[in-house]
Amino acid sequence: MKLSVAKEVEVGERRVALIPDTVSRLIKQGLEVWVEAGAGERAFFADAAYEAAGATIVTDTAKLWGEADVLLKVGPPQERENGQHEVDLLREGATLIGFLDPLGTPTLSKRLADRKVTAFSMELIPRTSRAQSMDALSSQAGVAGYKATLIAAAALPKFFPMLTTAAGTIPPAKVFVIGAGVAGLQAIATARLLGAVVEAFDIRPAVKEEVQSLGAKFVEVKLEEETVAAGGYAKEVSEAAKQKTQAAIAEHVKLSDVVITTAQVPGRKAPRLVTAEMIAQMKPGSVVVDLAADQGGNCEGSEAGKDVVRDGVTIIGPTNLPSSMPVHASQMYAKNILTLVQYLVKDGALNLNFDDDIISSACVTHAGDVRNQRVRDLLGEPVAAK
Ligand code: NAD
């Protein structure tokens, strides 16, 4: 069975789906690995390192895609410079694995189904302990959370830690993290490492202990409704609950030097939590890093990919932060992919047991059909026959 690793063509994407170490493990298992020339270059993994690990370097893109049994990628397939769409390079019956954005771009799933591609979307790996080592949403969110704090620290015209020096005492920075999921918790941990005083808020009260275990204070807001949906994710809350949380958030935003927002509700626009009025109340020089900027933004006025200054406050809307740390982001993603591939392959061939919850959840298209019901709903397709 042949696995092909594609070079990412998305502008600004520096990650690669497999690193040389994972290639050698797959080869030891009897699989063949082809790597597109230069695929690891922007993550500092040279073609020579892949070759030394046993991979074949392929310069012909059409051959790499067209002869793959399993094509491995980071981002969704897209149109290449020559106008050819990557989906059309795959042979019918091939398998594709990557972040395929099935809920954001359902038409891509339709295109993959029409091409009779079996597609596994890393966003749809269940967030269960059994699937933890395949959970690329978590591995990449951890990178993003870490980097968000570093960006905030670099932009803040102040120190993060408390300093007692001959030139006077510097108080520690106050950091407020909104959304304490995987990215938020890593942002908290990093801010604590840098010596800041940290507070955090999340709509899911269950994260209180995790926040406290990192040495941060949890901002509690008692709501009269359920805020957690199936699978442990946050739910969209009522208007009354939104107002109550905003009032509580406002008090903490006002007193913070740094606000890092990471709040998401899967499949929906990011909740708007920090308003222009709250920004106007912050001290000039304060910094907001909005990790949800490219999903509509948690902070009013944030713009994806830009730094905006409002009332003396710098609002940063970074995009694709994992790509800014391509070595470790690729290493972690490659480990997630390796575990998934090992899970799918039996005796050198793909073994798709759709009674298995990991396979059934992550497989978005197979044998000409879009299998995921949420994606089908977005496409206006009827409920799939079992
Ligand atoms: P996410 O990226 O979807 O959202 C980030 C955070 O924003 C979440 O903590 C969410 O509760 C919060 N949020 C949403 N709306 C909010 C609002 N209005 N105000 C404040 N906060 C708000 O989340 P994620 O980091 O991908 O994790 C989601 C869930 O999955 C969590 O329960 C996490 O514990 C769970 N999880 C489980 C596993 C596992 O068991 N293997 C692995 C990873 C994540």
Can you characterise this structure?
There is one protein chain. The protein is of the alpha/beta class. The chain is built from 13 helices and 19 strands. Helices cover 33% and strands 17% of the residues. It has 2 domains: 2-134 and 326-378, Rossmann fold, CATH 3.40.50.720; 142-324, Rossmann fold (3-Layer(aba) Sandwich), CATH 3.40.50.720. The protein has helices at residues 20-28, 47-52, 61-66, 86-89, 106-114, 136-155, 182-193, 208-213, 239-254, 276-281, 326-344, 357-362, 373-379; strands spanning 2-5, 32-36, 56-58, 70-72, 95-98, 118-121, 163-165, 168-170, 174-178, 197-201, 217-218, 258-261, 287-290, 307-310, 313-316, 345-346, 349-350, 363-366, 369-370. The chain starts with a strand and ends in a 7-residue tail after the last helix. The protein has an 8-stranded mixed sheet with strand order 3-2-1-4-5-6-18-19, with helices on both faces. The chain has a 7-stranded mixed sheet with strand order 11-10-9-12-13-15-14, with helices on both faces. It is globular and about 65 Å long. The structure holds nicotinamide-adenine-dinucleotide (NAD). Residues 127-129, 132, 135, 137-138, 141, 178-184, 201-204, 232-234, 245, 262-266, 271, 273 line the site of nicotinamide-adenine-dinucleotide.
